[in-house]
Each structure stands twice: as C-alpha cells, then as structure tokens.
Amino acid sequence: DAGITQSPRHKVTETGTPVTLRCHQTENHRYMYWYRQDPGHGLRLIHYSYGVKDTDKGEVSDGYSVSRSKTEDFLLTLESATSSQTSVYFCAVSGTRGETQYFGPGTRLLVL
Amino acid sequence: GNSVTQMEGPVTLSEEAFLTINCTYTATGYPSLFWYVQYPGEGLQLLLKATKADDKGSNKGFEATYRKETTSFHLEKGSVQVSDSAVYFCALSSGSNYQLIWGAGTKLIIKP
Q1: Which of A3, A36, A87, A112 has the smallest C-beta neighbourhood within 10 Å, fewest atoms?
Q2: Does residue A94 carry a pLDDT above 70?
C-alpha cells in the first residue's frame, strides 16, 4: 500500500464545466501518473510528473492539464469537460523511473 | 516502438483448472516486465515482476518467466479459484522514459 488516495471517488458533471481530480500520496514517491481506463482501450497515460513542477504529456493529453506544486499532490484538470472524457481515472506513483507503479482506487467521472 | 500484446479475453475456466494468459512484447534493450491484477471496482495492484532474462516472478500461486528468446512473459497458475476472477494486465518498462507500456488486459472468469 503506497498510501494513495483520490478525490472525489465519483463525480457527475455537465459538458463544458471545469473538473479537478486530486491524487494524494503519503510516501514521498518522486513520480506520479494520471491514467484513464476505458473498455477496449486498457490503460492510457494522460500526464505524468517527475518532480515538483515537472510534468509532461502522455499519449492522450488533449483536453487535460496537470499541476504538481507539492510532492504529495498531483492534480488533473479538465478545463471544459466533454462526454468523451467520461471514464475511470487512476492515479499511480513510483519511486524510480520505469519501475513498479502503485495505484490509487480510481475516480469514476460521468460527463453528461 | 515498444509494445505489449496480451491474449484477448474473456478467459473462462472452471475452479481448479490450469491457467495460462499469454503476453508477448516488443522492446529495445532489457525492460522489466510486470503483471498487474485489477479486481472488480478496485485499482490495479502489482501481482509479480521480473527484471532480467530467465527471472521468474511469483506471487499468490501465480508465476511468469521472462523469456528473452521468445519475448514472452506468460502468466500461469496451477489451480485457479473463484477469487482469481479479475482483469490481468501485462506491462513493460520502456527504460528510456518514465512510462510503463501496458497490454490491453485480459478478463479472467472462474466458475465454481
């Protein structure tokens, strides 16, 4: 257990509204990741962070932004939610590059 | 580029049957290989891993051997239980950046 929490766990929102998901970790892992999981697509990386204020894009970053102002928090923002962003979002952390990742419990987002 | 290919599911077995879930990969260098499991409604958790050729990862009765000659990391278990019903993901570390490369996942259903 890497002490990862995600909030909220469930959210329903309307198209065009901003949404922020939070990932919080308690064990000082350097690397943090945001994934989305959709049927038929497995896990797809949205953005990742390799340190405070150091972030980069993953394979499906369009429509998403992230911020990491503290080691323990990694925020994912949908500036203007669309129905195609309905998904389950997972945060993950790792202590070293490319090695074991530990996952949070997920956030289920529904965009109407 | 690097990629992971898993057998398509769902895989349906009876309790106490022998399980194999195939995973093959394409990668440069010497990646680490992982199997993750996702139980219904939960996040992913590491099941086992192997970091170099011929290594065998094992956990909870599951095993997988890192075969460089066949670029494979097949997951096996000698006698499955209903509680093993889950989605299983194969992944590799690309080594050149911060990401894991994921297979699409294989859903396993065990019937009593």
Answers
A1: A112
A2: yes
